[in-house]
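FORM 7B - TANDEM STRUCTURE REPORT

SECTION 1: FIRST PROTEIN
SEQUENCE AND TOKENS:
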Amino acid sequence: MKILYYNWIQFDKKNNSGGGVNVYQKNVIEYLINNTEHEVYFLSSGIYYDLISKRIRIVESTNEFGKRCHTFKLINSTCMAPVKAIYEDIDTYLSDMKVYQVFASFVKKYGFDVIHFNNIEGLPLNCLKIKRDFPDIKVLYSQHNYYMFCPQVNLFYNNSHTCEGCKNGINCRECLAGSVSKSQFKNYYKLDTFLERVHLETVSQKAKLFFKHLYLKKRGSSVQEVASESKASASIASAEDFKRYLKHNVGVLNKYVDSVLAVSDRAREIALKNGVDKDKVHTVYVGTKVAEQAVKKYHGRTNDDYIVLGFMGYFEKLKGLEFLLNALERLPEELQNKVAFKCYAGRKTKEDDLLISRIKKLDESLVFSEYHDGYNHSELPDIMKQIDLGVIPVLWEDNLPQVAIEFTAYGVPVLSSDLGGARELSKCDGFVFEAGNEEDFIDKLKNIVTHSEMADEYFEGLMKPVTVEEHINNMFKYYV
């Protein structure tokens, strides 16, 4: 088969943009080109803008797999990525045909058998209607986030709590008011594209930020404003626009997409709740490389006297780190001397410094508390040996965090909130607490600390981690 994958950012981008979806996409492509005869193509869009020409076009790009994978970039898309760039112009996302015409010509030229969208950010919605003109192509959409139901992808209202629904677009408008303006993103991307073209992407990150700062400053913007997603005076779309957004997205999925692949049962439930046809959406758990070496049992406590908690992820509120620190600061005294903490989260803004200082201050009350400025996957084996209990304290319906799978693959049980897909990894309910409930978290933690045998129970009820090969076999059922 000739397969085209789409994600808004190329899978081998070096600065970790795209998060877990990028890691997943790279793993799938690497397996296919090394183990099958399928021809693999990849397209990205929404972050490439020309300083001079406004012509929309698709150009071939280089990638770390060379000619074994054919990669392309769509230049000057009418819809930018990530989704935050389209809040002020929902109508273009819903109705634009300029990008579709370029995309359709690309599809006709290469004659794909399967087009698999890992999201639609960076493209107008009409691109998901490609089956209308090419009825023999299998079209799939993987639900890694909630873009089709929530214009900020995470169903997390006003950076505060899980969204209860768009309420005819009113909630969306209130939640997204004051977002970063479209012009800020475009200015940033124009220079980024230029720096890559002249091969300055190899200079240090600080040098790139300096060049971008000089460029954006002349245009009344700044790298800091864009990078930290600060509030700017964007002209937010109307409530009616957001209402149409949800209606049209679901309508297109139901009419033009052959299969919607949810990465967890909880993600599937949310798709059904928002109107996706029950016969169209299927749970297909993602595959990971670490599953191939999964130990399938608890690796044992690192110390008989205390338990080491591990948080690995981001500082964003919805990931729950702030909640976790609140709970750890409230631990009763008899529990403090039985708990240690390790945090691996990459610092991005000055606002993160406050949480970092709180992490370090916990060293005064817990057995110890350490902060590490992020991590890379090559470090995982050593890191996991030092952690007894992974914590996924998410405050949103996180589809299925890759790090949760990685914890279990290395023999580390996971204490997770009841939102999202992480709770599905084991049938042991003693490792699930009510999201945002500090008392429930402390109670569950105390029980785990007191009863060491619970870790074995967690792995007895563990869902076997899915390998990349197993995932592809499951996914390919919907390719034919």
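SECTION 2: SECOND PROTEIN
SEQUENCE AND TOKENS:
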Amino acid sequence: MRIVIVTGMSGAGKSTALRNMEDLGYFCVDNLPVLLLEKLADMIQDSSFTNDKVAIGIDIRSGKELDNLSNVLAVLKRGGIEYEILFLDASSENLIRRFKETRREHPLAKDSSIEDAIRKERDRVAFLKSSADYIIDTTGLLTRELRKEIKKIFEENSSYSNIIVSLVSFGYKFGIPVDADIVFDVRFMPNPYYDENLRPLTGNDDKIKDYVMSTEESWTFTDKLYDMLEFLIPEYIEKEGKHHLTVAIGCTGGRHRSVAVTNIMYDKLAKLPYSVKKYHRDISYDKYVKGEE
């Protein structure tokens, strides 16, 4: 029997996570009153309950009952009922934007602003985050990317490190990504823009990659960048408590060098026990033709 408590911040994707788990064959119950959790756990332990995978959504909507959840979970443990906690989180800025876009009201925002409601909710659910088995930061995650993370944990049973590393290529003339935690500049590398045959291509093409990586300095940089990130990621997890790290790699226009290097770093980091994704922000031709590199 596998029991998963699905919880986290309002607007962070709990409902989406539960739908994905239902697709994976889980019996799902959302917004279960805390007082009924123990009874439900006893029921699903009964031999007549045929589904051996259960996901239970509990969050701030439980009101004052949420404060008693720790005691209820302790009772389950003493009774030999094992469970896992999945915590969905996102940056406060991202949550505010989501509530404004959907025009939904935050459960705690009846007598306060969204900002204050999110702050209060963080304080009240902090005990769940600190004891969570899995934390998924959905800041910047697409729905299909969240589905992939859920599948990795609850169907493929892959090891999960509670951090998502996002690699973003960008062009300096369009600005540094506002959510970047670390920024690297690759404008010292050979620039395909000055070869008219290569100019229309992108860093996704092998010809561009070969051109950009044609010098010893380029390969030395990518090797050292990998070594640095391999060292830094565990430090960000342990010392900063980060669950989403954005690494931005920039060149002038964001179409050639930064794309090629981002792809190389993605292939390298994907071999480590982290969730890694990549995004080429400025690769589109429409942006590229606005000015010369």
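SECTION 3: OBSERVATIONS ON SECOND PROTEIN
Residues 216-240 form the longest helix (25 residues).
Strands lie at 2-8, 27-29, 53-57, 84-89, 134-137, 164-171, 182-185, 244-251, 275-280.

SECTION 4: SIGNATURE
Preparer initials: ____
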